[in-house]
Amino acid sequence: MNKTLIATLTIGLLGFTGTASAHGSHLYSSHTHQHPAKAQVKAQAKTSGAYFGAGVGKLRLDVDPGTDIDDTAHKVFGGYQLNKKFAVELQHAKMDGTQAPAPTAYDVRATSLSAVITPFNSSRVTPFAKIGVSRVKKDLSTGNTSDTGISGGLGLMYSVNKKFKVRAEYEKFDSDTDMLSIGGSYHF
Questions:
Q1: What is the mean pLDDT of residues 123-127?
Q2: Which distant-in-sequence residues (6+ apart) come within 8 Å of 171 by Cβ?
Q3: Which three-class secondary structure string do you get for 122-164?
Q4: Over the stretch 19-33, which tens digit does the pLDDT of each residue have?
Q5: Which residues contact 97 (CB under 8 A, 6 or more apart)?
Q6: Can you spell out the DSSP letters for 60-117?
Q7: Domains: count for the chain
Q8: Are strands 164-174 and 143-159 parallel, antiparallel or unpaired?
Q9: How far is CA 116 from each of CA 3, 19, 84, 163, rounded to the nearest angstrom?
Q10: Which domain holds residue 171?
Q11: Is 4 in a helix, a strand, or coil?
Q12: For the chain, which terminal residue's Cβ has fewer other Cβ atoms within 10 angstroms, N or C?
């Protein structure tokens, strides 16, 4: 069900991309006067280049029905912006610790390779969607597992300036591992 939801949202965003482009193309045409804020955003829009970043958030692991492990996790990521609408991103997220009442030691690592889709770039705040593949390794005191599968996510990105962006996102790495995070990225 989660994979279907992510696929549906991604397809919907891709469809919205065409609509936003068709309706927003007049904003930066040479025969109209630009608002200073719009001109600044246009100057900030870079069509390609590498970026890297880091984030922190809450990772949730559904261990058994009714038993979840929620803890602080951190992640690092890097990618390459192919054009205004698409980027390729590699990410690694990690969460480890011990949870009470029954001492459950855990070490959860998720590595993913994703296509990042930005449907439109008409303002400083830009929504994005991610779809890709993840490898999730779960080392628990009750046993170890490793899964590879489809991953996805949705988020918002705020351009502080043309080099630095702040982003908040929700990601689903597999059927029982997800993460809500905030982070920043530096764009070359």
A1: 88
A2: 93, 112, 130, 151, 152, 153, 178, 179, 181
A3: CCCEEEEEEEEEEEEEEEECCEEEEEEEEEEEEEEEEECCCCE
A4: 344 444 443 444 445
A5: 71, 105, 106
A6: EEEEETTEEEEEEEEEEEEEEE-SSSEEEEEEEEEEEEEETTTTEEEEEEEEEEEEEE
A7: 1
A8: antiparallel
A9: 16, 18, 11, 18
A10: 2-187
A11: helix
A12: N
The CA distance from 61 to 173, in Å, is 10
pLDDT digits (tens, 9 = 90+) for 95-115: 988 776 666 788 999 999 999
Structure tokens at 138: 């779960």
Q: Angle at the Cα of 53 (from 157 to 56), degrees rounded to 5?
A: 80
Q: How many C-beta atoms surround the C-beta of residue 120 within 10 A?
A: 18
Q: For residue 134, which of 118, 121, 115, 120 has the smallest C-alpha distance?
A: 115
Residue type at 130 in one-letter notation: K
- Of 167, 129, 168, 166, the closest CA to residue 151 belongs to 129
Cα(57)–Cα(74) distance, integer angstroms: 6
pTM score, whole prediction: 0.72
